[in-house]
Amino acid sequence: MAFTKEQRITNLLSMAQRARRIVSGAFAVEQAMKKKQAVYLLVAADAADESKKTYKGLAEKYKVPYAEGLDREMLGTCLGKEYRAAAALTDAGFAKKLHQLMEESL
């Protein structure tokens, strides 16, 4: 049975979480960006417009590729947390794979 794109993304993010290669939550994401540890930013599709604007600005400022996907609940769940509006991958391998998944059509 083939996994849906969404399932593959959540599985990848869960693996990154277990490997401690992802940070989530506003403060942690911002810190990872400023310290140039973030290599890919995922913003929840249902995050507040103001939050999206902030994260998009950070991503552009620090030249980190970013995408919108999943919802806050799903993003939080696959990271073992409550709701999460954003998560930043700190590992190039995970980032590359997530980017490939995000580029695939549904």
TrEMBL record:
Alphabetically ordered keywords of this record: Ribonucleoprotein, Ribosomal protein
Pfam families found in the cross-reference section: Ribosomal_L7Ae
InterPro entries, sorted: Ribosomal_eL30-like_sf, Ribosomal_eL8/eL30/eS12/Gad45
Assigned GO CC terms: ribosome
Domain Ribosomal protein eL8/eL30/eS12/Gadd45, residue spans: 8-98
Protein name: Ribosomal protein L7Ae
